[in-house]
Amino acid sequence: MRRIIGIQGWLALAGIVGIGLGLRLQAAPAVSPLQIADTPESVMAAAKTPTSSLDGYVNTATDVNRFLNRIATDRAFASQLFAAVKKGDRQTVQSLTMSTGVRGRVSVGDVKTDFFLDEEFEIPFTGKTLYVCLTNERFCKTESGDSGVVLR
Amino acid sequence: MLAHTPSTLRRAVDWSLTLCLVVIAAGAIHGRAADDTVEGFMATAKAIAAQPADLARTAAEARAFANRVSSDRTFASRLLTAVTKNDTAGVGALLKEAMPNGTAIVGRTDADFTFFAHDIKIPFTDYVCSVCISTVNECAPDKTSCSKPAK
What is the interface size between A and B, counted as CB pairs within 8 Å? Predict the structure, then answer.
């Protein structure tokens, strides 16, 4: 009698506890990622994405400014680039542009004599470009057709 | 009227008109040739060089805020607290602290954590930027961006 109660009792007790535990676990609310409390660390990690995008804007705009300043102040460089534009030599225009320290991708669009040069500087992580156009006529794809820099 | 003037006078008028046309044409050609030189090329570049510099300065101001959040734990913690409490003034003060030269408009903020500030600008430039920070992927890719609003 004592032995039967011992074994069966323990088994029954284990069963009851097991069922109870199972019900309790089933009744417990699911933990969703949205309900995990944010921490300074998670906020810091999330801020890295916008920092990269804005880095792209700062770096590309700085590169374009450096390129234009080089043309504006270095006569030898400006003459080389001007000659390449006059010849319609896009490859030389590309390599002269890159030689000013441009970090991203640049595509040379049209080059025409009398003089017209347009280039697109890709802004990383943003899907945007800086369009740069120099002309002595109104050939540019800017609002007025005049020379300018357009973010697009 | 010219038909009634003596022929010498008529010829003189004709020559004068022709000379005027020649002078005007020469002036136009000269003006264009002056632009189509290395000096003209250099001057054109100089005239537009400030435009990307303005964009770089505005984007750098917005980046200063995002960079401060990503690198300064105390600052990130203060932003988290302000956003969680929906404390607009507190958020504004943090923006000002990280971007002393800039102004911004606080957009959507959610406690689970999404923060968006737009119209970030600095004086004397035409560009504006926006910053979106979210721990729950609530920022569309173009939410952090810069643009030049139409005037």
Answer: 161
Distance (Å, rounded) from C-alpha A62 to C-alpha A123? 11
DSSP calls for A64-106: HHHHHHHHHH-HHHHHHHHHHHHHT-HHHHHHHHHTTT--S-E
Does A35 reside within a domain?
A: no
pLDDT tens digits, B1-33: 444 556 666 676 666 656 544 544 444 444 444
Q: Best residue in B63, B113, B142 to probe A by mutation, most A CBs within 10 Å?
A: B63
- Decide if A83 is inside a domain: yes
Domain count, chain A: 1
Residue B94, chain A, CB below 8 Å: the answer is no
Which residues face B116 on adjacent strands?
Answer: B132
| B116 pLDDT above the threshold of 70 | yes
pLDDT tens, position by position, A75-91: 999 999 999 999 999 99
